[in-house]
Design a protein that fits this description.
- By secondary structure, the protein is α+β, with helices and mostly antiparallel strands.
- The protein is about 15% helix and about 30% strand.
- It has four helices and 23 strands.
- The strands form five sheets. A six-stranded antiparallel beta barrel has the order 12-13-14-17-16-15. Strands 18-19-20-23-22-21 form a six-stranded antiparallel barrel.
- The radius of gyration is 35 Å and the shape is globular.
Length: about 450
């Protein structure tokens, strides 16, 4: 927009010089001739007019836009907390109707992105022993488990075998001499890959020609930093326990969990209460020592054991979370090893538990990751404390005198033990009476009891 220079100037008469008058400087107070600089008052008036024409509308537009944005945010907050929108049927429904097992949207849209019970009907035909991580496969013909001969073994077979357990990362394998094998079975098998990417086991007559069987690891795991740890609920750093994660619902820490592969998190079923079933509100925070709620990882699927029922018993308290994108491993993000199928713990075994749970019964969450050393308590001893509620699929750990235990907010977190050169997860924080009370140990889901469910569930998404 152009503004004429003299729009706000009044015409001023020129003082004519008398004929013959000598030329020279104008006398003081002479009138301004056209083209000379405007007066300060005139310039100020011009700027004010320009501000009214341009500035005021711009400021008004910005204020209106800001108000619209604030109103939209408030509306979204209200809708997100009380309603969801059905895209197919083009309607809002109350949020309490989402994930309630009944279809309120067209095409059951309101029941799609929810926590799902998982029943594993086909058991894995692969298992790995505690002794030297020896691979065993199940032979349908003999209905028996057999060690795998190293003859003809290669990386493609290793990947196919690990695929039966739900792992798609690069496995590592090595030969172990049969003479050094402490396994009771003397049945040997050869593994071949089928057309659909599965495996087929064929029994070998006699011993393996090479004299070696396969030792297999489907994922590099259990690599926590070696640092001196202090007993009794002390602050820690994530590099000590890089598999520890925070499960968060609507930006709030709810439970702990553990990384077991680039795309899977292991936790407890009871973390997903009736009002916390919607996947889109769940986030997983990894690689942190201090609780944070930004840059968290989105969730793809959540499965809980099909037989878990919080209203009847505390058994089957296990869940798996599949992430929308794979994690990138680093010093602060690493998977924990799962135990072997024949894992056993010694009485009074030294165990470690971690989390951001309450630092005292009835207290508040810890902002800093904490660690505590506790000890395995035999189930008969624990059953005496809990009037026979401890099942074979559970395990107890703590200190008889109390003082060190998990608490609210630690649920779903890992109970681990250091075995050899790696850490293994043997338990999942499940339940208990109070926190750190004398004679009331913490009760944990025994991971070894659910290996088939874990591997079977992971395989369904591979």
């Amino acid at each position: 927009m152009c503004v004429k220079e003299n729009d706000y100037d009044t015409e001023r008469p020129l003082h004519r010089r008398a004929a013959g008058a000598a030329s020279g400087p104008r006398a003081a107070g002479a009138a301004r001739v056209p083209g000379t600089a405007a007066s300060p008052t005139t310039e100020k008036s011009g700027k004010m007019a320009m501000f009214k024409r341009i500035g005021v509308p711009i400021i008004t537009a910005l204020l209106v836009a800001g108000a619209i944005i604030i109103i939209a945010i408030l509306i979204k907050v209200v809708l997100d907390n009380y309603y969801i929108f059905c895209m197919r049927s083009f309607k809002f429904i109350p949020i309490e109707k989402v994930c309630d097992g009944k279809s309120d949207c067209a095409g059951a849209e309101d029941e799609q992105r929810c926590v799902k019970p998982m029943e594993v009907k086909t058991l894995p035909n692969v298992r790995i022993s505690n002794s030297r991580s020896l691979l065993q496969v199940f032979n349908q013909g003999s209905q028996s488990w057999a060690l795998v001969c190293y003859d003809g073994w290669d990386s493609n077979r290793a990947k196919a075998v690990c695929g039966q357990l739900g792992f798609n990362s690069d496995p590592s394998s090595s030969p172990v001499a049969i003479a050094n094998n402490s396994m009771p079975t003397q049945v040997y098998s050869r593994v071949d890959i089928t057309g659909n990417g599965g495996i087929q086991s064929t029994l070998v007559n006699g011993a393996c020609g090479s004299g070696n069987v396969v030792s297999l690891s489907c994922i590099g795991c259990g690599k926590g930093q070696k640092e001196v740890r202090i007993v009794g609920g002390s602050n820690s750093i994530i590099q000590n326990w890089p598999w520890q994660v925070s499960l968060q619902y609507k930006g709030q820490h709810v439970c702990g969990g553990s990384i077991i592969s680039p795309s899977w998190i292991l936790t407890a079923a009871h973390c997903f209460q009736k009002e916390q079933q919607q996947l889109d509100y769940w986030r997983i925070q990894v690689g942190i020592s201090t609780l944070s709620f930004i840059f968290a990882t989105r969730v793809d699927k959540i499965f809980i054991h099909s037989q878990y029922n919080s209203s009847t018993n505390k058994a089957y308290d296990i869940g798996l979370i599949h992430l929308q994108s794979d994690l990138s491993f680093s010093e602060s993000i690493q998977p924990i090893c799962l135990p072997a199928f024949d894992e056993s713990l010694q009485t009074d075994a030294e165990l470690w538990v971690t989390g951001w749970g309450y630092t005292a019964e009835g207290g508040t969450l810890s902002s800093q990751l904490k660690e505590a050393q506790i000890f395995l308590i035999p189930n008969p001893t624990c059953n005496a404390q809990y009037s026979g509620q401890i099942l074979d699929s559970m395990m107890c750990a703590g200190r008889i005198q109390g003082g060190t235990d998990t608490c609210q907010g630690d649920s779903g977190g890992p109970l681990v033990i250091e075995g050899g050169k790696k850490w293994e997860q043997v338990g999942i924080v499940s339940w208990g009476i109070g926190c750190a009370q004398p004679g009331k140990a913490g009760v944990y889901t025994k991971v070894i009891s659910y290996l088939d469910w874990i591997y079977g569930t992971m395989k369904t998404v591979l």
